Amino acid sequence: MSTDKPIPQHVAIIMDGNGRWAKQRGLDRSEGHIAGVESIRTTLKAALRHGVRQLTFYAFSTENWGRPQAEVEALMELLCRSIINETPELKKQGVRVQIIGERSRFSERVQYYLAQIEQETAASEKLTMVLALNYSSRDELRRAMQQIGREVAEGHLQPEAIDEQTIAAHLDTAGMPDPDLVIRTSGEQRLSNFLMWQSAYAEFYFPEVLWPDFSEEEFARALEVYAKRDRRFGLVK
Ligand code: IPE
Ligand code: IPE
Ligand code: MG
Q: In this structure, which residues have their CB less than 5 angstroms from ion ligand 3?
């Protein structure tokens, strides 16, 4: 797509509204999550077409374990099934998948599929799709602090030498660009513990649409909104 508008390099998405979408239709919440997978597919295609290089999806927060057991189980099943179904197409499209979040809390089976999709798509270079799973910013920072603390205790790192780069390098997102644009669907306007460090200078966009109804047009609209923003990064322009 040829355009001289600024395109965000990294778009991060808080996919919200699956439950409400299902409820509106008298369906089980899990049906909303199934419909939500289709929106991921649609968004990925749109992002590839627009030349976005990284998409991060908030798929399961550390807090989401507190949901009813049946919903958590349905989400884990959907995750495994989606990995099996989507991996060949993702490879074909040149999409690399990376996981952020603490994965030891997942079952062996889920961990196997997470490792599988990362390995299978490792050589893809067109777009990086990051799935945030058992992720929260505070937990990510806690784990980073523990690791930094260990390095200090072992004498490998001087406390005075800890700078912003040191912290960023110990986060799950080490080596990834910060999000330029954070989208949260369903009209909620909060971060819910998502990429708090990384979003320091992100632009935010909160469309009313529920995640299962998110479309190529909605994605294009988000990019339009982004292109009109004036990013100053604390400077005078
Ligand atoms: C987002 O949709 C998906 C996950 C958190 C896994 P929700 O399930 O939060 O949908 P609502 O907010 O209840 O509508
Ligand atoms: C945030 O959505 C987490 C994900 C999208 C995975 P939630 O629906 O869990 O967040 P709250 O409870 O509305 O803040
Ligand atoms: Mg929600």
A: 16
User: Structure pTM?
Assistant: 0.97
* Neighbouring C-beta atoms of residue 35, cutoff 10 Å: 18
Please classify residue 41 by burial: count the beta carbons closer than 10 Å to its beta carbon, then call 0-12 exposed, 13-18 middle and 19+ buried. middle
Residue 62 placed within a domain: yes
Q: Which domain holds residue 144?
A: 10-227
pLDDT one-digit tens code per residue, 149-179: 999 999 999 999 999 999 999 999 999 999 9
**Local structure of 69: helix, strand or coil:** helix
Per residue in 185-208, pLDDT (tens digit) is 999 999 999 999 999 999 999 999
Give the chain's domain count: 1
Determine which one of 28, 64, 139, 213 is catalytic: 64
Closest C-alpha residue for ligand 2 atom 3: 61
